Amino acid sequence: MYDLLPANLIFVPILAQAFKPIQDPVAIFLVFLTIILVAPLFFQRLRMPGIIGLILAGVVVGPYGLGILARDSAIVLLGTVGLLFLMFLGGLETSLDDLKRNADKAIIFGLATFAIPMTLGTLAMLSLGYSVLASVLVASCFASHTLLALPVLSKLGIMRTQAVTATLGGTLITNVLALLVLAIVVKAQQGNLTFQFWLFLIPSLAIYTFATLWGVPKLGRWFFRRFGHDEAAEFIFVLAALFVISYLAGLIEIEPIVGAFLAGVAISQLIPPLSPLMNRIQFVGNTLFIPFFLISVGMLVDPLILVKQPRSLLVAAVMIGAEFLSKFLAAWGSGKVFGWQFPPVMVMFGLSVAQAASTLAAITVAFNIKLVDELTVNGIIAMILVSCVLSPWFVARWGSRIQPVAEGAIKLEKEALGKRILVPVANPSTEDNLLQLAIILAKRAKGTLLPLHVLLDTGGAIADSAKTRQKQLLEAAETIAHGAVVNVESIGRIDDSLDRGILRTAAERDASLTICGWKGYSTYTENFFGSVIDNVVRMATTPVLITRLSEPIENTQRVLLVANELMSNSAIFRQTLTLARTLAEELKAKLQVVLMHHRAGLPQLKLNEKIPVQRVRGDLVDTVSQVLKANDLLVFIASTHGIGQPALGRESEAIARSHGKTSMIIVHFPTSGK
Hints:
This protein has helices at residues 25-45, 50-61, 73-92, 96-101, 103-127, 132-143, 150-156, 162-189, 195-227, 231-251, 256-267, 276-298, 305-308, 311-338, 342-353, 357-368, 374-399, 408-418, 428-444, 464-483, 498-508, 524-529, 532-539, 571-587, 620-627, 650-658, and strands at residues 420-424, 448-456, 487-488, 491-495, 513-517, 544-548, 558-564, 590-596, 613-616, 632-637, 663-668. By secondary structure, the chain is α/β, with parallel strands linked by helices. Strand 2 (448-456), helix 20 and strand 3 (487-488) form a beta-alpha-beta unit. Helix 1 packs across helix 12 (276-298), helix 10 runs antiparallel to helix 11 and helix 14 packs across helix 15.
């Protein structure tokens, strides 16, 4: 029963003797599910993080509590999967772009919040009589941190402030360095820290990191392009990437949790944060795998050790004091260097003081190799409890004193466009991409998705097959929307024409935006009499996005906005730029603006953001052809023409015909005269 714990730590309390560990697999799973359901809800009512409830529940049901569950091989397996998933999600939340945007500040803070806790933590643990290796490893737990208070930042509207972006970038640096320290200490404990180890580790780690951060996105884009319409295949691919990379990390003699973290960073380049796939990954991890790990960690804790060994109180107090002091000094020193006031400093401190993911991962590994004892584990758990309670409080108190980034008009435009998005669906092969685009915009604005399918009224009875197809298309759209946790209102309609059905529905359902699919060209007959797209564009009273998405939208690496410089100071251009920036942010893609100018002396466009702007002269089609790259998403503004020409303009069709694999979005804003 206790073969996975060190023999000298085995202690079964009197209460545990009254219970015999459950052996029935169904009952064991039921106990876990009950804990996962009840514990977080109870502690959230107490205004405490749910993570604390899961850990304490593990203490209660574990071998050192009531003895209801034994920490056997099945528990260890589930806990290991949860541990890897925890680190993987940490990597998913870490964006390389965060580091690039504030590289200097992120590097300074990242190194400071690693070096100061490492130094103070090592000295503090040495003073308690710990060995050098144990002291260094515990100090690495102080150096890493978990961004537990991010939801507080979102509510305060300060996610884009310099203090927050610097902390996000610094998190990547300190967590990676802390995990490397863990890998080195583990090897030293096992007696394998030799010259050959370093000779093997440095080049192999460099190759492994490069292959992961470069190869996984390449492979993922190919896979999503080939099998992007199979949601199950996408999810299994992500899981396979996680465990393959973690396993390969073990082959080069570093801890699998390092590989899991790097896998998350690599995969984050492929999956939009608000996409259904990201929602599934986070849902499965946060509701099942990670709670298993947290409960298994609680099962390691012996609460009676405080009675048996009063010294544990001293160890816990020293750990908490060293961790809080070192994290504050790192934030305060970095703030002084940057010239920041006290509130941003306290926000950095509040964000970086929380311990959970990396700390639990490292101390679990250390305990398994018998580098630290149960007393140390209890001290770390106490530190986690205190930091998880105080971190959101610090951020909420001092973050409320920081002025949000001035983007009021932009925010209103985003919310207006994404409030109610109408998406006509007719082709199952293109439906998924259209809905993915709509979901990104609707979820950003907390809006509603309106999938629409129109059946033509020809004066006779509607065929049952047509009604069945309509039902299937709308049900598929609802499934995708619910998977992304987006409000959805499916609309099945019978009308005398497709374009009138779309326009009437937009008016009746108060749509703020319509997203239509486009084949990329129009016949002369369609140009003369008007195609569905032409009529919708010419008669629409709300903005319309005409899209030709040739590749899965999550494969986008750059959003390229092309416009005439004469329009650069217009409200239409500003709204289009807002749309392009939103897509770039959500797709984790670069944004570039190309302005076509025809004469000198025009005022230069100035953007508040660090967006590259290229001014070129020449033919639009030729210029776009020169600047386009693979995996670009081309965005430009529609130019309405007269009879005999497509409503989207000749240039749009010329680009679409010559670049069949390029995804395009043509933005149309109605004129005030409509």
